[in-house]
Amino acid sequence: MASLRDLPIDEFIDALSVPCCYINLDGNVLLWNEYAETLFGWGRNEVLHHPLPVVQHLQDALESWSPMLLQYPFSTTAMTPFKHKNGSVVYATAYLQSFSINNYTGYFLAFLPKGFGPLISTEQFNLLHHFQAMIEQSTYYLATNAYGEITEINPLLCGLIGAPDHQFIGRNWFELIHPSFENHPLAEDVLQALTTDRIWNGEMPVRSERHVRNMCWLNLTVVPILSDEGEIVQYTAFGFDVSDKKRLEQEVNYLAYHNDLTGLLNKKGWLRQYSHVLTDVDQGDGLVHVALFDIDRFKIINESFGSRVGNELLLQIKDRAAQFLPETSVMFHPSGGLFGLIFFEQSKEEVFQLLRQLQHELQRPFRIYHHSIMVSISIGCVFYPSATSSLEELYTRAESALFKGKRIGVGTIQFVTKDMDDAFSRQIHIEKALYQALEEKHFYLEYQPKYELKTDTLIGFEALLRWHHEELGQIPPSEFIPLAEEMALIVPINNWVILEAAKQLKAWQQLVDHPLSMAVNISPNQFRSDSFINTLRNIKQQLNLNPSDIILEITESLVMQQTDEIIARMDQIKRLDYRLSIDDFGTGFSSLQYLKSFPVDELKIDKVFLDDWLTSKSHLLDVIVHLGKSLNLHVVAEGVEDQEMLDHLKQTACDSFQGFLYAKPLPPIEVVRLLTDNSQ
Q: What residues does the PAS domain cover (predicted)?
């Protein structure tokens, strides 16, 4: 067989048992060997004379390679993601060299993926365009025999470590690892990879006199070199200094898990570091308390004295609390004026006394920049074992107890009671079930009939969302809708409601010979979403339904925001020919001036005004009806449950009503029966 040195350039790269290619300065592939085909999936005919497909943002990469290769004739990348033909990602160390040979000018690339094998022979390695010489000049480099004893080390690496090369020859190269990692499994991971004739790549801490304050890290690639008989004859390791990158990662990691002012663990860091405590309690007979204490009116202190004083106050609170608390406790700092504590082993009575004393200690004046500042703190506390399954749930319950105490008054200590614990458990249960309820069709609709006042004619319905849970039973909308809004599920739920209600209306209109309408409540989040408009368009186009038969009920508080966005969305809806109704009118203190400018069709009077008339015969109900009619709006009274109330409404200009006096919300089958009876 001819020597590799004598082969033409195209045959040379085919003879190399590593994935490699040549590309010109524009990034088009000139040569592509079979190992590159195997690694990346693209055949030679697919890539020749086309831009190199494995590099994302190829033009950006070429722009960065040019100045780099002017400075260094040979360069390597760290373990880098490359694209496979099937869309997956291939991680490999890339070796990059500029060249100009015969008619070829551009770049030579070789790829060594992690765990790649079989490996190149000694001759191939030494002849890979003199890579070894290039590596010695531009990267940290050493070579060992088959037993890991150093046979060669370049001046760059000697200078980094701070010792001449003769001190290293014959020593095991693992002695270069930083002493603090002597018992770390890193060396075992490297050995395990190398003993299976595989390449190892990773970050390794090494001894270095240059890096006194921070540890030195090298990104190393270790390659076993095989003889022609397939036996390992040496190891070659080369890499580059990534200490600055590692230090930056550590700083970012610190900031991610610590409060940047006090240096205490933040919520994320606390959850991460103490995630094991509940398991420890379960395995023993211990007790854990989690308490959150908040500086009352801390925002006012910050605004009055400035953030410099506010920050110093937080630091002094941290220091004073730390001096007082037991050594076994842990303090953390989630945010702003909110601190957290975790107590181990103490009883509920002991924790309560500790928290009372903590309050007393922190209510002594703080002297800050010539200011004397006094604060009060409110505390919420929960203990484990309790009806919870995670540290985050425990935190949430302590937070809820804190807020409940603040509603009572500042300076309170609120422990989670059994009733609160049961309520938290129910809420968590509902939150988990909400994700499945829509997909598994656990929601259903009932329909509240609406009647014309003058004739008692059934003229339409209001669609009402219902949810029956197998374990929890009937869950009222007032309980699950706020949770759905918090969990960003309200938009898909509401879109399902309007679509389902529109389908029912279309079917029921066939059963009667007079117009029927359907009212649907629209949440503020749904009103703002683009998917809502798309749903309205689909209903209009696909159901062949007159959009004016659908009444979209929006809250008065949403209307009164008076933003350009809200008004533009209302105009969008009106252009689609849907009707708009202001629900619960009268409870949001609407201005007549704004009502006149909004494109609404209907006012729906809240039940509170009907009840007020029944108890005091107040004229406010009549005023609201008159207001609506003066604006040429359809006026609806909801919650009519009394004949006297109905008789009075008939004497006003009110147009229609709904309520238990005539009908409660009905399931679809009862609606069909009602419509059939009325038609007869």
A: 5-48, 141-180
